[in-house]
Amino acid sequence: QVQLVESGGGLVQAGGSLRLSCAASGRTFSTSRYAMGWFRQAPGKEREFVAAISWSGDNTKYADSVKGRFTISRNVASNTMYLQMNSLEPEDTAVYYCSAQQAGITYVFRSDDAINYWGKGTLVTVSS
Description:
The protein is mainly β. It has one helix at residues 27-31; strands spanning 3-7, 10-13, 18-25, 34-41, 48-53, 60-62, 70-75, 80-85, 94-102, 117-118, 122-127. The chain is globular, with a radius of gyration of 14 Å.
């Protein structure tokens, strides 16, 4: 099994920054290759894709709404993924979920169709 634990959420004013982290653990995670990513769900809305990164870290994808403001990265050695969020807007308020999909070294996803594991989420609130 794989466990994903998010941290770093909180309350921030519009224009501010936050850095989310996702720590992965489990024997399966250490012995296989997983693309990882972030999704978010705002109150009353469906879950949406935010950003994803390949196992190698070479390939990334972003939702248009966050492109240029958010940066995804990962440290394979420590099984940790990050989401640096700058210029936050009230519309970014949501629960952010870490996700992992077993895949090839350079694969990066953009949907949740084949996600193998989810974290429990961390709340980000951006005040205006």
